[in-house]
Design a protein that fits this description.
The chain is mainly β. Helix content is 5%, strand content 40%. It has a six-stranded antiparallel beta sheet, with no helix packed on it. The longest helix is centred in the N-terminal third of the chain and has 6 residues. The protein starts with a strand and ends with a helix.
Length: 202
């Protein structure tokens, strides 16, 4: 009997899946299978993971939007502490949903996982005081292969929850904050990515 429930085509976008494990709880706490290859294959997901990553971030940190140029990675992401808003943007030129985005809140309470297949940009915003974020990858990290998109590009139009501020014409975090006053924090690199139209010129 399967221990996971898989929602395919999340947000109407093929290649995105929301995965919910069956959680067994009692007075001691809980137990769940966070990954089961057999259950995944029964759901039609045949990815092979080669690397696990984990990060810790404080409230207001926004990481992204990142993608790999030559060695695309599928990612199975989840939160083991705190809460984030996780986003994927379809970069597949032959896709019916090219340029579309989907976002989902992942928390230690809901224990949802989000599978993002190869060919997407990815990013997340930390909503809790601290968030520990884990993900499995279908390819290894390749130095120098990372690309990116401006997290706030109006052409993509991501609606980041609790974020207030006006688009300054760049990916700069200056002038942005969460509704409770927490400053938005991005890496220097993530504030230099340009928008969709400048990244994918034809």
């Amino acid at each position: 009997m399967g221990q996971i429930k898989v929602e395919k085509n999340a947000g109407g976008i093929e290649g995105l899946c929301v995965i919910e494990p069956e959680v067994h709880g009692d007075a001691r706490g809980y137990f769940m299978e966070s990954y089961n290859q057999r259950d995944m294959e029964e759901a039609g997901l045949h990815m092979v993971f080669v690397q696990d990553n984990q990060s810790c971030s404080v409230k207001g940190v926004l990481r992204g939007l990142h993608f790999q140029k030559e060695f695309p990675q599928g990612k199975l992401v989840r939160v083991i502490k705190g809460a984030v808003f996780d986003v994927a943007v379809d970069l597949r030129k032959d896709s019916k949903t090219y340029g579309k985005w989907y976002g989902i809140e992942l928390t230690e309470e809901n224990k949802k996982q989000f599978y993002i297949s190869e060919g997407f940009a990815h990013g997340f915003l930390v909503l809790s005081d601290v968030a520990e974020f884990c993900y499995k990858c279908t390819d290894f990290y390749h130095p120098g292969d990372e690309g990116g998109l401006a997290w706030n590009d109006p052409e993509i139009g991501i609606v980041w929850p609790n974020v207030v501020g006006e688009y300054p014409g760049s990916a700069s975090a200056e002038g942005y904050r969460l509704e409770d006053g927490t400053a938005l924090v991005l890496s220097e690199k993530d504030q230099k990515w340009v928008g969709w139209n400048d990244t994918f010129k034809f």
